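Self-study notes.
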Amino acid sequence: MKKIILLVTLLYLGIACQSKKEKETPTVVKDTLTSTFSQSEEMGISETFWKGYINKSIPIYLHYQIENDIIVGEIIYLNTQEKQPIKIIGSFEEDQLRLLEFESSGNISGIITGTVTNENHFVGDWFSPKTRKNFTLDLTEKDTTVIAPSIVANENKLFGKYHYGFSDAGPQGYFTIEKLNDNQAVFEIESVTSDPARNIATVDKDTITLDGTNFTYMIPDSDNCSFRVQFYKDFATIMYTNGYCSGQFGHNATIEGTFLKIE
């Protein structure tokens, strides 16, 4: 009997010690959902959603994000059968938003300009570069919040061909960049004004050193004519750094613009 009592006592003490050990070293379970949302909130940028009409008769859905004065999103024409999203790239011009509708070819099918009112309305105009027609725009903000996809460029995917075109008869721009080695690339730019003039702005092919996802270039033998190329995911912007290069290019021709990556 004493042996049985001793055995039960030892068994009880063993269970108690194991239980105490488990309490002292609890299992850690990572809350992946909370971690994911926290990371998105820290790194992500929310989008703004609008719904309304062009010319009071064409229903559209528009959403975009704003990052460093660059606006990127999509517009969907709800009266079409496919309801295919069209890429939107834009910027701020004074107190207005200016949004370009980019087809996959780089052709710009529409231009939206407008302002956001205190009543959460987006009012302005929609313009067709092809038909030259202008219509009113009236949108209402929708209460929808999502984390926007990143527009940061991948340094290994910058290279290729970029283009914009304000219809076949309007201004056109072409920009190509090819990789030479880990730090250097070859680029060239050519832009033209609307027909029938088709005045030209060109930057001849040259070798540059890339600084991450951008580079600044001074045109040789120019009067301080320099510009900065900034790459984003699927597009690039070119902007002068010292103001418009007067006398450098043909009349009204410019290399500035937003170029969609097409190849």
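Second protein, same conventions, sequence then structure:
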Amino acid sequence: MNSQAPRLLLLTRPRPQAPAWLARLTALGVPARALPLMEIAPPADGGAAARQAWALLPQARLAMFVSPNAVAGFFAQRPAGASWPAATLAATVGPGSAQALLGAGVPAGQLVQPPADAASLDSEHLWPLLAGEDWQGRLALVLRGEGGREWLADRLRERGARLQALSVYRRGCPRLDAAEQALLSQALAQPAAHVWLFSSAEAIGHLAQLAGPAQDWSSAQAIATHPRIADRARTLGMGHVVLARPEAAAVAQAFASC
């Protein structure tokens, strides 16, 4: 849409996820910088919920991880010598979470995620892979931040599963350092020279909070990794929003089209 150069892609994922994403984008020739719009913090319970999840894991048929942050929060409390139970499935929707689970030692044969060619990487496209199971009376764990979407949990409950949702990290509006604040100010002042990459609708809310109510978003450009996130960006008033899968190659292609 916009041919002005140079343009800069703004990666809004939490700080711990930024280096790997920036490396992949840079390798694809995408000029990008990190501007985190989500702060990830340890849970208020000091890890008690994650330790409870580990105690329950051998009894569970499923452990659902909503994000790489959930994977990190859970495995931070891994008991010494504990391994992934042979009868427990690990499910997630995003490739980043899947890689984190494999890296933590979850066997590939027990990992369930939407197929690579799924129309969208979300719970709706994960559920068909789980729906064939007999869930009556079986334990399903959901590892997440505080709160979160209930769609998959509702499907499991409808099928008779015993659901246990456990918060293993906290999300919040970030405290930007001086360099990040300067980058934000630059992006708000020069919307044609920047493209936002959103992987969370909550992050868009944080951006609105940081920018203030007087900001004009009509010239802003954004890439969203899910239709719900795109809708949130449009609701804010962003003038040009495109969809891309949460993969570096897809984001690079979308960036070229902006």
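Instructor comment on the second fold: Residues 178-189 form the longest helix (12 residues).
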